[in-house]
Every structure is written in C-alpha cells, then in structure tokens.
Amino acid sequence: QVQLVESGGGLVQAGGSLRLSCAASGRTFSGYVMGWFRQAPGKERDLVAAISWSGGRTYYTDPVKGRFTISGDNAKNTVYLEMNSLKPEDTAVYYCAADRHGILGDVRAWRYDYWGQGTQVTVSS
User: Fold this and answer.
1) pLDDT by residue for the chain (125 residues), tens digit each?
2) What pLDDT does residue 55 have?
3) What residues does 68 pair with on adjacent strands?
4) How far is CA 36 from CA 66, 125, in A?
5) Which of 55, 57, 70, 58 is CA-nearest to residue 22?
6) What pLDDT, on the 0 to 100 scale, is given for residue 56?
7) What is the chain written as a DSSP string?
8) Are 119 and 101 within 8 A, CB to CB?
C-alpha cells in the first residue's frame, strides 16, 4: 500500500516562494527515483524535477532550472520541492511520483509507478 501525499500548495504572488512536501509510505524506496510533475489545465503532465532516493542526485527540466530545488529527507521518507521566483506560468497541479526503475532524468510520466493526488499551486501576476 504505497502512498504519496503532497502538501504545501497554495496561492502566491509572482516572485514569491513555496515549498511542497511529499510524504512517502508503504515500502522502502531505496533504488527509486522520486519526481515532481506538474499539469496545467489543458496541458500535458510534465516532469519538473527528480531525485534519486539513495544517492541524492538531482535532475531539473529547463523551465525550472535555477529556480526550483528538489531535496529529500530519507529519515522522514519525505521529498521536498522548494520553488522560488515563481511565475504565473508555474501555475499547475503539482504531483509527487515514484519510479521503481530508478532512471534519473527520464522525463516520461508513464514510467513512474506511484502517484500522489496532487496539490494546487497558483501564482498570481
């Protein structure tokens, strides 16, 4: 019974910051890649950042490089996404996901095995 539960979303003005949390439970996640995806209305679900659970290696896609930071606390089974310098185009539902195959940098959402329900991030201009 793997569960991923996101929290931390909300409404923020452009230029502001938010920190999202993903609490993972139900199994040992060693060897997994944990990813943050986002989906805006009418658009595809896109990877924004990923981290290897054991090694701490990270990957970012171009729209968020330099602004977002993914990190993990293995003792708490929690993955974070620190979002800075937020822009209106960052508005989306943000999802936490886990890939048991552990291929960092693979942006294909369908490779991820477990998903949270998402948390809404809205950035006003």
Assistant:
1) 899 999 999 999 999 999 999 999 999 999 999 999 999 999 999 999 999 988 889 999 999 999 999 999 989 999 999 999 999 999 999 999 999 987 898 999 999 999 999 999 999 99
2) 80
3) 83
4) 16, 23
5) 70
6) 85
7) --EEEEE--EEEETT--EEEEEEEESS--TT-EEEEEEE-TTS--EEEEEEETTT--EEE-GGGTTTEEEEEEGGGTEEEEEE-S--GGG-EEEEEEEETT--TT---GGG--EE---EEEEEE-
8) no
Residue 84, both tokens: 């800075």
* Nearest CA-CA partner of 5 in 78, 102, 109: 78
Q: How many residues belong to the chain?
A: 125
Tokens of 65: 């490089």
Q: Which two tokens stand for residue 72?
A: 């993990």
